[in-house]
Design brief:
By secondary structure, this protein is an alpha/beta fold. Helix content is 44%, strand content 13%. Helix 8 packs across helix 10 (230-239) and helix 9 (221-228) crosses helix 10 (230-239). The longest helix is centred in the N-terminal third of the chain and has 18 residues, at 7-24. It starts with 6 loop residues before the first helix and ends in a 7-residue tail after the last strand.
Length: 252
């Protein structure tokens, strides 16, 4: 299918499915039950009925991604520090051949405190959730509805609930996962047992999960290796495309 360049197609696609769901609910939603789509969507439904991020042109995807950046952070500014990073994220999203990323892997955005990592990963989350297939096909695994958390939240939940959080996280093997700000979470104790729950989750995602994981961190490769050890760092190298975000603290 030809790359989509018209933003109205995205808006119509989302509105069309939302209108159907309002009247019918998830369970009955199938291509042959949706009814006649608006004319602007006719080519999409002829091609299979599902719009995915790689269907978008680079320019359209970038336009939408920047809108999401603005939604996450009012007054968001593109500058010499984040411009190339934004372009690479959009190439990854659209699976552009010019991308330096391996599309089978997730992303690790590496940058200093306040450099804008969280804004970019939250914008990525908003962008991808537009294409959440769970809204449309309950009999297919969810590809785009990403679960967001932080390293600190994982550690805090472990300190409260203990190992039960790993059972909860196990349910996430059916969807992508974002862990924001890994490497700053404390090593925690539960009934005297000391553990880094982020390490446990990353091991689980590496060994048992076919869906991608996305992380941000203030730590470079050397510091990640020192923080988590050689074994988990080696797996990180397999799981993630590293994207370096330069620049000083934007909060100053």
């Amino acid at each position: 299918m030809k790359k989509i360049t018209d933003i109205s197609i995205i808006d119509n696609y989302y509105a069309y499915h939302q209108n159907y769901l309002a009247g019918h609910g998830w369970y009955h939603l199938r291509n042959d039950e949706i009814g006649d789509p608006p004319e602007v969507l006719s080519n999409i439904f002829t091609e299979g009925g599902i719009l995915t991020p790689p269907d978008l042109s680079f320019d359209l995807a970038k336009r939408v991604f920047l809108q999401d950046c603005e939604s996450v952070c009012k007054g968001f500014v593109i500058d010499q520090y984040n411009s190339d990073v934004i372009n690479e994220i959009v190439r990854y999203i659209t699976q552009d051949p010019a991308s330096k990323c391996a599309f089978v892997n997730g992303l690790m955005i590496i940058g200093g405190v306040g450099s804008g990592k969280t804004v970019l990963i939250r914008a990525f989350d908003r962008f991808m959730t537009r294409f959440n297939l769970e809204r449309y096909y309950v009999d297919k695994v969810n590809q785009f509805n990403i679960y967001y958390t932080t390293g600190y939240d994982i550690a805090e939940q472990y300190s409260i609930k203990g190992p039960v959080i790993f059972e909860e996280i196990t349910q996430l093997k059916y969807k992508p996962l974002i862990i924001d700000d890994i490497g700053t979470e404390p090593v925690v104790k539960h009934y005297g047992n000391e553990i880094d729950p982020v390490v446990q989750i990353l091991f689980h995602r590496y060994n048992r999960c076919e869906y991608k994981t996305y992380v941000t961190t203030n730590l470079d490769g050397k510091d990640l290796k020192a923080r988590y050890g050689t074994r988990i760092y080696s797996r990180m190298k397999e799981m993630f495309n590293d994207i370096i975000l330069p620049g000083d603290d934007r909060r100053k």
